[in-house]
Amino acid sequence: MIENWSSLIPLLPEVFLLGMICVILIAGLYIDEKRRGIIHFLAILTLALTAVLTLRHFAVGQRYTALGGMFVRDGVGDILKLFVYLSTAIVFVYAKHWLRANKLFSPEFYVLALFAVLGMCILISGGNLLTIYLGLELMALSSYAMVALNRDSPVAAESAMKYFVLGALASGLLLYGMSILYGLTGSLDITLIAKALESGRQPEVAVAFAVVFVVVGIGFKFGAVPFHMWVPDVYHGAPTAVTLFLASAPKLAAVGMAFRLLAEGLEPMVKDWAQMLGFLAMMSLVVGNLAAIAQTNLKRMLAYSTISHVGFILLGILAGSEQGYAAAMFYAITYALMTTAAFGMIIALSHSGFEAERIEDFKGLNQRQPWLAFLMLLVMASLGGFPPLVGFFSKLYVLQAAINAGWLWLAIVAVVMAVVGAYYYLRVIKVMYFDEPDREHQIQAPGDVRVVLAANGLLQLFLTLFVGSLTALCVAAWQ
Amino acid sequence: MPIETILFFALSTVLVIAAGAVVTLRNPVHAAMCLVLTFFTSSMLWVLLRAEFLAIALVLVYVGAVMVLFLFVVMMLDINTTPLREGFARYLPVGLLIAAIMAAQMIAVLGTQHFGFDRYAAPAAVVEGSNTEALGRLLYTQYVYPFEIAAVILLVAIVAAIALTHRRREGVKTQDPGKQTMVTKAERLRVVKVGSESKEGRGA
Amino acid sequence: MADSALLNLVLWLPFAGMLALALLPAARAELIRGLSLALMAVQFALVAWLVARFDPAQGLQFATDLPWIPDWGVHYRIGLDGYNVLLVALTAFLGPLVVLGAQRAVTKDLKLFHAMIQGIQFAMLGTFLAQDLFVFYVFWEAMLIPMFLIIGIWGGERRVYATMKFVLYTAFGSILMLAALIYLVWTLNQTTGVRSFAFADLIGLNLPLDAQLWLLAAFGLSFAIKVPMVPLHTWLPDAHVEAPTTGSVILAGVLLKMGTYGFLKLGFPLFPEATRELAPWLMGLSVAGILYGACLALVQDDIKKVIAYSSISHLGYVMIGLLSFELVGIQGAIVQMVSHGLVAGGLFLMVGMIYERCHSRKIADYGGLAKLMPLYSVAFLLLTLASVGLPTTSGFTGEFMALLGAFAAGWKAQAAGDSLMLVYAVLAVLGVVLGALYMLRLAGALLFGAERAPHAPLNDLDGRERAILVAILAAVFWLGLAPGPALELTEGAAREYRAIVLGHAATEGGQ
What we know:
The structure holds three protein chains of three kinds. Chain A is mostly helical.
């Protein structure tokens, strides 16, 4: 019951976001095709204003709850949300060019993406199993629809179907785990569940059983092996603009979800789920990196590389320490910034009727478009974890956390796999710089895409100087 | 034996038989009708538990909306279901075995030893008013936030459904009354100057 | 304060230059070359000013210490000290020469080339200047990608193979170093509660011998690959031969020294007990490298390969000097690093000059250049003699002092009943003889005999080339005739290194 309206102030960004989505939805009906740019502008403005509202009551070092604990604002949530807004805004800038070129430029893309962002915010701020689940579903449902947005492409339809069926299955498993947790603890509230589990009065087997289902649900949302089957198909089949979106912000939301469920709710069971995540992380690192080597399609390669990066994120989470969570968060943030740049490059090189999605399409890029090639070099090197780019620091941070938590063998696997991974990123660099171009690289990307892409690529280099501040922020989120 | 127990067993028997029939009947329409029966009997069970809101919701939503839609689809599309059933008998033993193992495992973990009545007391009955009212009260107070999110999810479903199916067809002739009434004279009436026949011309 | 700001300027100038070059239009070739050269020249001037103001009596100078990643205990620590002062000077000295040397040879993708040269200069200077293990590692690794591109884009026929091999070898070593680094800092944190990567904090750490051995092996492998020491050297000939002239000069001139510098600054002082334990083995490998490199250099038919293998041989002296633990040997090793940078760098530049004219590196294609290109021949002969180690050249100072150290250590060991060190020292002298053989064979085949060249007529050196060679030869003779000032700069560091590695008890017994 709402006794006091001021208790809803922490909820303001989400409420504002929802209101703006409705405005955009209605505006989309009345704005004709030539002036669709207004929708684009409105969507980015919405994200910016939501970010401002989030910053107004920035919750680092604090914790507000509203609506009887169903909604939680804390440092972790706020930082993740800010980067969700940021990466989505970057996605919008890149996506507009691609959507225009492929005649998919419609208000629905923006509306669905913003709905997904709303779902992520609800998920990240969920203090209750119910809101976590609903936030997840809001995000997932919007994503399914976005994958299928290109109705005329059978590949997109197939991947959307796959995504939907497997996603629904995973949601079901998660829900099942949640229901067992509810049955065992008699509560849906995250903190109450943790308190109840702390007492240790629940039968251990049954709790472990529930944990399995929750971990499977999280593993699926991350796309960790062996729940990764959908990742390459969806990345490959979805419209590139949508892949770009799916690859970035939802990873941040998944980290938030793992924090809420595992680190807060199931904190007393850390021994159990750390083991399970350890297995998932190892499999993801091995399968992701080895499979990526064999790919010739850049989108598929990036999909498998995502799987391996997920392995690293899990490595941080399973450390089960503040340092580990901070490292995982740092990794997810930097990864989102890298992956937007990588897909942004594909979009910048695409033009109407042509999709630069094969690695071969980047042949000799340096001779035709040296600046773009250089940016791609930075992004690939950063993904591969070459110092001094920021990807190196995120890997190192996660490894440190894992070693401190006693996961030495897993850290060794991760390091070996990182070297294997470096190979396929180097291959892209090799193709761009050492091979002769066999076709023209037409660039039709408008100015805003170029500017944002340049900033995004150079960020890989310059973020190195501010690694200290970013890690401090991630650590502060946990205090 | 109290009447409630007798009713429970009677309804449960019907429920189980009907549910079995849903998956074994060959005719899809018959299977759908059996599903309707299944829903009905389970809503009866809800009534027995004094959960009249759930009972009514089940009938309204599943029987009234979902099943009718389903029947429409089955009858209008005339899907050939034989290929779907191919190999049913062949895989049956394996399927049964796996199902039995899974059931046994889940009973072992989640059986009455952990979730029995001795561990969990029966929920308290609603003290005042109907349970529809109690549910409504909860939904609009304590659970208003999830309720609103659910509403947003439904909105997304609508947007997605329209975005994925609605398309503007080219070359379809339709009337637009708005345009018809907005028409001006200049658009419809063209005054053509016809030069009068000149005498000189005829002369030449 | 102002001087430490100046040192930061020196370090970040090439980085700014890289970005500035990236923003220039690709068509303005002259502007790009000019800017690149100007940056290098300014940098050299600044370094010269700083070196002149360097006070040999003090340790670390012009230092900067800013928190970078406070949560990990990483600080941005740089500074000039006796260990790195000569190498920083060498790097800054070779910078403008490298850019000048590439004036005509590189036409393809000029902008990227110069940006990468600046980038690599930034990484090399950073590696030398770093006073924090983490900063060291990041700079050490940062040079990988620019070098990958320099060999891969502007290299010879098998460039992709060579560059991949180079990167994989180096990356393998780096991963080991990273693992050891994390363990080292973790141990420091466990034992003292300090979270720091500073050299100064880490050097005081007393580790058990077996841990030291493992860590030295990890660091050592990484450094030994760079040096390269003998079983790990196979990337070097490929990389050298396939690299463009500029790449070879950077590789031979500076990059290889990063390995020996790593041993001098980090590998040995961090793990002194393990170093003393392993010294005979490492000494053996170094002597094997000297002889093996020299023997292979004798039978090559490619000019570049001769010089590449001679590098393996010459860097063996550096290792011997460092491992002699005698002041004279250590100082000799440092001088030898600089000398080899100058001489091998100069020789590679000269190979580049003739390759630009004739597009061949086969020894058999040339003969009688003394008549065709008299100036070139004089310079080549002088550099050959410096490489051989003739007195009055820098090669003599370096090799002679390193050998002197080895013999001093050998006699001491002999007195203690162990003659192995002495045998090594004698074998190392044999390397000098072999060195004279292969270098004179090369010079003889190229400069004398019947006049022969794949491309005629040959122009002798032009003004630009003369300027480059005069600068190098001046430095070579300066180090040969008056090594005093240079030795003075490094003496403090050499003493400190010796004291740390031998353990503090043994310090007083030395010189």
